Amino acid sequence: MARKPAPGTRERILDTAATLFYDHGVQAVGMQQIIDHAECGKNLLYREFSSKTELVATYLERERQAFLRRWEEAGRRAGDDPSARLIAFMEATALSVQSPGYRGCPFRNYLAEVADHDDLPGRIATAYLLDTRERIESLVAELNVADPVLLTERIWLIVEGLHTAAAHPGGDRAAQVAVSLVKELIDQAAGA
Amino acid sequence: MARKPAPGTRERILDTAATLFYDHGVQAVGMQQIIDHAECGKNLLYREFSSKTELVATYLERERQAFLRRWEEAGRRAGDDPSARLIAFMEATALSVQSPGYRGCPFRNYLAEVADHDDLPGRIATAYLLDTRERIESLVAELNVADPVLLTERIWLIVEGLHTAAAHPGGDRAAQVAVSLVKELIDQAAGA
DNA sequence: GTCTATAAGCCGATAGAC
DNA sequence: GTCTATCGGCTTATAGAC
Lengths: 192, 192
What we know:
Two copies of one chain form a homodimer.
Chain A: H1 9-24, H2 31-38, H3 42-48, H4 52-78, H5 82-97, H6 106-113, H7 120-142, H8 148-165, H9 174-190
Chain B binds a DNA duplex through helix 3.
């Protein structure tokens, strides 16, 4: 009789790969390296993930799902007020970029290191960016501001800057500065 | 006697490598690919650049020199007023990120795709970031604003965001938005 | 574990200027 | 013929894939 597949193998490989991909970049990590760290055989890895591209896509998709959960949780705690939800999103982002070992946004890093955005990982990464931007756009549309397009563009610029700046030397204060600046822009657009 | 070395060989190879490195990422481009595009032999490339790391470092260093020239030229045209110089820098940056084929800042892309920042290319890239940030800091210090540290952090956040956002889908308006936002922040900090 | 492709880097072979 | 800039193939390691 055949041996039963060990449960959680796929997740364990994916965990290992995700850590390596994030810490060293997708291109710099080889399949052999993942196998060594996951302590599995090549056959097992290729049984679960038919190619490196698929493994990368799964890694990014899992990150995307995690982002969506964080977004929903932050939104739930912030209630119905769109400005509170925007600030909650900024604070959640600020928290994530301040986590130890932060090395930039996985999606932005992927798009920076791989030029071809037409394969599955590239489509997931661009979808993440467009989706996040649209979520901000929707919340801003609920605010009663004179120029919602401008405010959306400004917040998005700060979000992009936050992810990038926090990964660079001297980026320790970026999170705090980004949150306070977005608050000020919302107040300024809504208030006065 | 002996054959004369062809003039401009080093520059031609470097031009080719720079284009490939920028368009496809440093890691994705092999030495053979550079040789094929530059239409030279391996020996010639390795005579001019002893390793790929050195070639990448030379590429980044040349980009850094080009940045310094643009900075000085923009500063010269803006005159002595620090706020005019800051805005001139933002406008020059806005222009560069709107150039066709823009695929992000070469230094930030390098740091995103290579995790080890201790080798020569990594040191050049981080030096560029710290230097640029300090230049902004110096100009802001010349302004009479209540909180120069905060204004510096805010402008830097927008600069980081501009480089990143302009490379992403829907980033067409980022340049214009970044310039106008920095103008507003300077006016707000100095004026009212 | 093995296979093929390709990476970086090295060296014998080639060829063009005197 | 001689000398050297340049070329193309070689080596070793490692990539992805079966």
